Amino acid sequence: MAADCQAWLNANPVDANDLSDSFVSGDEDNGRVSNKNIKNEINGNWLSTSSSNLQEARLKAKAKRRLRKNSSRDSGRGDSLSDTGDIIRGANTAPTSPKTKLLDRKSRLGKGRGLPKKGGAGGKGVWGRSGEVYEQEEVDEKDPNYDEAQVNCVYETVVPPLDERDFEKTLTPIVQEYFEHGDTNEVAELLADLNLGPMHSEVPSLAVVLALESRASHRELTSRLLADLCGSVLTHSDMERSFDKLLQELPDLVLDTPRAPQLVGRFIARAVHDKILSKSYIEGYKGKVDCEYTREALDRAAVLLKMSKGGLRIDNQWGSGGGQSPVVQLIQEMNLLLKEFILSGDLIEAERCLRDLEVPHFHHEFVYEAIIMVLESKGEKTLDLVLNLLKSLCESTIITVDQLRRGYERVYMDIAEINIDVPRAYFILEQFVDKSLSIGIIDVWLRDLCPSRGRKRFVSEGDGGVIKLESC
């Protein structure tokens, strides 16, 4: 055997460079490598390698590199490598990509019915399926956190009592909202949710103080609120203590509301009428009052209660508010206001009463009623008083120029019907309009619109010299 190998070597001489692991002198062309004189050593033996096996190994390596390069993009397709090195695409699995389907909870392998995991009860922060009821957990006495005192413990919501600092901040918005909606039941529910504690008696006094600085309709709502709260949320003793506090604080309330003694007296009279306070409440202060404001408030309440026996309605002393009152009632209140002004001549009180009606959109009716009262009156006193009143109201902008003009024009339109009951209506109206122009409350254009009655001859040709009395 050795002799044969030596003979072969002598016939085929090999250079020393051809004994390395690299290729000898082969040319690489288009991915093909000549396999001339290539030998591999396996377990110490030199073996010859065919060109077909080498080409197959190169194709497999190239396919594996391509597969690794596209693995992140084509993951889940089910690609595989055949024995020949070809890539076999999965035909049953649809390609998916997280870039096109964000937050996709379906399996990437294409298995299942596409439903959420665990029926929607397995996500982060999820305690279970909606509507799922868990059984009551049994207490383990061997648990190191077991506490026998907490086994039969009952938990309740505890509301801390309000102190003086938080009381006014909490109750003031409730009362102010009540002035807007007027629902006493809502106020009672809100007060029931609060732990007033010893501050129960402060609720009526706070509501009255807020009403003193507000309108007449809000005072009427406050009186209704006190009547509805008494018995359900507040007691009669709470009401008495609250009004006692109001009488003591009158010297301070007068600084902000000069009419506070009279208004508090009206609140006391209304409370006695509504049976919130006892009838002996005012009598209990006789001979025990040193403050003049307290005495004035109690005297006002006593006078109103005596007048109620003569027919005065204390239950409607504040009025029902301009937006809620019917037109007929507003006209009656305006006529009553004008009559009281003619008797007293107090401009300030007349302005206050007109504001308390809370009907600024209806002030043109007040101008109309004032001029009608002048036409129906006798003498110059009423005419001068009404002119001064209209001038004062215009200067204080209670009555606007447009409202004044509408009142005059309405009298101009109705003067023919007014003249039926008042024969001298045309003459008095012309006199009133001229004086209105002289004091500057109307202009020349409005004066020129004033109608005048046509002149008639006292004696005509066919009357036989008889004087017509209707022309006088």
Automatic annotation (TrEMBL):
GO biological process, one term: negative regulation of DNA-templated transcription
Keyword line: Cytoplasm, Nucleus, Repeat, RNA-binding
Superkingdom field: Eukaryota
Compartments, as annotated in UniProt: Cytoplasm; Nucleus
Gene3D superfamilies hit by this protein: 1.25.40.180
Family matches, as SUPFAM superfamilies: ARM repeat
Keyword Repressor set for record: no
Ranges of residues in domain MI: 166-287, 329-452
MF-aspect GO terms: RNA binding
Annotated Gene Ontology cellular component terms: cytosol; nucleus
Compositional bias of kind Gly residues: 117-128
Main location: cytoplasm
Region (Disordered): 16-37, 63-129
Family the UniProt entry places it in: Belongs to the PDCD4 family.
Database matches in PANTHER family: PROGRAMMED CELL DEATH 4 (PTHR12626), PROGRAMMED CELL DEATH PROTEIN 4 (PTHR12626:SF3)
Protein name, per record: Programmed cell death protein 4
Species whose genome carries this gene: Neogobius melanostomus
